[in-house]
Amino acid sequence: MVDVQVRLEALRNRAVAELRAVQDEADLERWRIAYLGRRGALAEVTRGLASAPASERPRLGQAANQAKQTLEQAFAECEQRLKVAALERALQAERVDVTLPGRPPALGRLHPVTHVMEQVVRLFERMGFQVAEGPEVETDYYNFEALNIPRDHPARDIWDTIYVRPPEILLRTHTSPVQARVMEQQQPPVRVVVPGRCYRYEALDASHEWMFYQVEGLAVDEGITMADLKGTLTAFARQMFWPEVRTRFRCDYFPFVEPGVEMSISCHACKGQGGPCAVCRGSGWLEILGAGMVHPRVLEKVGYDSERYTGFAFGMGLERIAMIKYGIEDIRLFYSNDLRFLQQFP
Ligand code: PHE
What we know:
Layout: H1 2-20, H2 25-35, H3 41-48, H4 57-93, H5 112-126, E1 130-131, E2 137-139, H6 140-143, E3 163-165, E4 169-171, H7 177-185, E5 190-199, E6 211-221, H8 226-240, E7 247-252, E8 257-266, E9 285-294, H9 296-301, E10 310-317, H10 318-326, H11 339-342
Parallel strand pairs: 1-5
Antiparallel strand pairs: 2-4, 3-4, 5-6, 6-10, 7-8, 8-9, 9-10
Helix pairs in contact: 1-3, 1-4, 2-4, 5-10
Bound molecules: phenylalanine (PHE).
Residues 174, 176, 254, 257, 260, 290-292, 313-315 line the site of phenylalanine.
C-alpha cells in the first residue's frame, strides 16, 4: 500500500509546515484538532489501514505510529515555543531603562499667608509667647460680650458678622475671642499668640476679603505697661520688615482695650518721606495692626484681679502684612487660586 505511506508522508510534511506558522494557543489548538484529533487527518489515514492487506499492516501501522510520534513531538515543541515567546513579551513589557534620568517630583510650596503666619509666630515665640488656638465658629459671648461689647453697642458695627445660627452662633470676626478663652484656662503670667481664620460680612474689594487671617497677641502679668506694648511690637516690626523700620502709635478705639492704638510702620517705598508715594499714598506710614492695654472689664470677666494685673493685646491681619512685605496690591489674589500668583513665593 504505497498509497498510505505517501499520504502519511504528505500529511506529516504539511502538518510540520503549518505548525511553523502557528502564533498562539488558539492556532495551536486548531492544529491539534486538525491533525491529532479523534476526527483529524492522522486518524483518518489510520482508519484506512483496516482495508490494507494483512501482510502490509504491521509495517504501515508502524509508519503511522512514527508519524503520530513526530507530530506529537512537534506539537510539544511548538507549545514550548509559544510559552517562551509569551514570557519574553511579558518581560519586554516590564522593561525599565535604568539609564533614563528620574522624573523629579513636583514640589509644592507654602501659601504666602501661611509663610508669613509662620514667620510672625516664630518671632513672637522667640520673645517668650506660646501659641494658642480657638474655634472659628464662635459664640456671641466670646466674640463680643467677653470683649466688653454688649448687644446693641454701636461698636458692633466695626465687625460685620456672618451668623451661623443667629443671634448666638457666628463665625468669629477676629481672633480676640481667644483672649478670654485662654485667660479662663490659666492664671497670669499669660503670653500667647493666636493665629487663625476670621470672617466678616464684607463687600469685596482690593483690601477686603470675607475670609482672612489674623494673629492675636496677649500678654498679662503684674506691672505690664504701654512701654512693653510699644517695645514688643517695635522689636517685632524690625525683624519682620527691615531693621531701620520706624513705628508710630496713634489713638484708636476698640472696646476691649484702654487706651487703644493703631500701629503704623514707616513706608519702605519712600522711606517715610511721603510725597507722591503710591504705596503709602503720601503719608509716609503704613497701618499694620490694632492694639492696646487690656480693658480692666475684660480681665474681671475672666476672674482676674484687675488691680493686680495689667496687660496688652494686639491683632494683625496677615494678608495686610504679606501685601506690605511682597508689594501685593489686591487682597483677592490670595484666595483666587491662580498658580501664576502663588508660584512667585518661596
Ligand atoms: N480684634 C481687633 C480687630 O480685629 C484688633 C485688636 C486686637 C485691637 C487686640 C486691639 C487689641 O480689629
